[in-house]
């Protein structure tokens, strides 16, 4: 029986730049940052208040997971904003939105009332959208 989800993957264009964004703009902590077999870098981050689900910041590269063509297609789709980085919860969407805008985070939707709460939509530095939600 599966009991929890430990990691979810976000494909990014550059791991160093993504780490800087998630750490210094969104305030995430580093979970793991290590080189593993085959030159693959295992890099995870998580919100300071919750390390139960960590985000893997992965670069699509040619290797065991992708052939060269697939890696190039995924990189192209990331840059076009075709992928999402997830839904990040906050206690105060408007305040968090303003704090992130002041840090230079780009938003494509300001805080807006939805059926499930207040939601703003932002972009990470690779072009992945993320949702900022106050329930």
From TrEMBL:
Q: Which residues form a coiled coil?
A: none
Highest rank taxon of the organism: Bacteria
Kindly give the InterPro entries that the UniProt entry links to this protein: Glyas_Bleomycin-R_OHBP_Dase (IPR029068), Glyas_Fos-R_dOase_dom (IPR004360), VOC_core (IPR037523)
Q: Which SUPFAM superfamilies match?
A: Glyoxalase/Bleomycin resistance protein/Dihydroxybiphenyl dioxygenase (SSF54593)
Protein's recorded name: VOC family protein
């Amino acid at each position: 029986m599966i009991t929890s989800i430990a990691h979810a993957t976000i494909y990014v264009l550059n791991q160093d730049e993504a780490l800087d964004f998630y750490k210094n703009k969104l305030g995430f902590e580093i979970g793991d940052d290590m080189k593993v077999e085959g030159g693959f870098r295992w890099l995870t981050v998580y919100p300071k208040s919750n390390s139960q689900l960590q985000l893997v910041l992965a670069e699509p590269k040619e290797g065991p997971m992708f052939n060269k063509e697939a890696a190039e297609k995924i990189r192209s789709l990331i840059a076009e904003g075709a992928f999402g980085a997830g839904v990040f919860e906050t206690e105060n969407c408007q305040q968090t939105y303003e704090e992130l805008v002041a840090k230079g985070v780009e938003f494509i939707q300001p805080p807006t009332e939805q059926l499930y709460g207040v939601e703003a939509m932002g972009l990470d530095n690779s072009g992945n959208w993320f949702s900022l939600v106050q329930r």
